[in-house]
Amino acid sequence: MNGHANGHAASTFGYDVLVIGAGIAGINAGYRLQTALPDYSYAILEGRHELGGTWSLFKYPGIRSDSDLHTFGFSFNPWLKPNSIATGESIIEYLNETVSKFGIDRHIQYNHKVTSADWSSDQQQWRLEVDYEGHTKIYHAKFVIMGTGYYDYEKPLEAKIPGLDNFQGKAVHTQFWPEDLDYKGKKIVVIGSGATTITLVPALVDGGAAKVTQLQRSPSYVMNSPQKKPGEYAWYERVLPRALALWVTRMKFILIPYLFYLFCRKFPNSARNLLRKEAKSVLPEGFPMDPHFQPSYNPWDQRLCFCPDNDFFKSFESGRAEIITDTIRSVVKDGIELNSGHKVDADIIVTATGLNVQVCGKIAISVDKQPVDVSSQWLWRHTMLTNVPNLGVLIGYINASWTLGADSSCLLLTRLLTYMRNNGYTKTTPSISESEKQNPRPVLGLTSTYLKNAFKALPHAGNSGPWLPRENYFKDYWAATRADLRKGLNFEKVST
b/e string for 229-248 if b means 16 or more Cβ within 10 A? Predict the structure, then answer.
């Protein structure tokens, strides 16, 4: 396939590989494809008007990464700025610079929203229906890679907040923040305790809010992430060549957080005491640690929240930020009444209560016109679905950088495509045995509310071999580059 419109129908286009989504995962897939398979044609179909995915969609004040950019960025285009935690705006700049530098931008087609994908066994290819500005275009591909992220872009997780309709002020969900929202001098209640809230509270204080109240049902663990300043260098950065120093930095940001994660899982009480002690040392004198910084779970049962240079903790020094740990009895016209009897006045209520988790971007997937229920399938090496031929799904880590997991999947898929080409295979489909289905495990293994709610919507991980959930980057990288591709996959040669 050459990537051009077929002569018999102007609206039909053919490629070797189609990538769905031009966020971090999709861009990374484009680079891996053109590097490993330069003779293959590919396109990246992006439903929105610009690249970036999450970083294009979310517009709330202070939006930033909750992973370091040395690993959240691309290994082939290292993050060069000194700060490891980056703003959404600078991430978009980095992504645009990356696609331009490597020619990936020439493969991206914007405003192309994929609505359905059907695998044809007769033709040994996918047929995709794509909405482009109200018109349907048909695409064919030998292989499809889903870089659609892990949540619903159009519908956030519904927060069950009693009486919210009574509120006469402005109610906002962080996924759809109004860019013209004027919050200066206003009393704001932010409902939530996750990474978005930890980002939002200091940003609203700095942006001139009169009062910012973080209202949480249960606390999260929050950890400082010190940021390097321009001109500040580690010892190895002064003596090693630039490329080697960047590699060392990347390895450091892969290894040290993983070791800390293992420490938290192995010694939860010590980790809890360490995190609480650090928080207390930077909070204002006499700030109550309990219950506001006393989570009911162990560190890394849920995702650890990071704040650069203690900005979240320091926001309480202003006197314009507070935390309340309580449950909501009802929202009233001018605030929120709590079950403790306390009332919080508010001009604006912000719900930062999580994402509506899904995979494959609400695309209707079928095989020979038979619909596929993604939630009833199993994930082969966290990257392909049982009973679905020639389809890759890019899912990253939730206890490390998303990009590390997505990239290990891309390396695996390009090796698989090379193997298929070299052996003349037209089709590969994951197949799991009944014994490997016993005692299924969650694909995303944390206990956050939005992930627990998503358990029934996601495919399963198995109990052994290529069906296990992700563990760590080093193991996944080995599997992507060395593991036996035939284990768990069926290959076929079908002439068309």
Answer: eeeeeeeebeeeeeeebbee
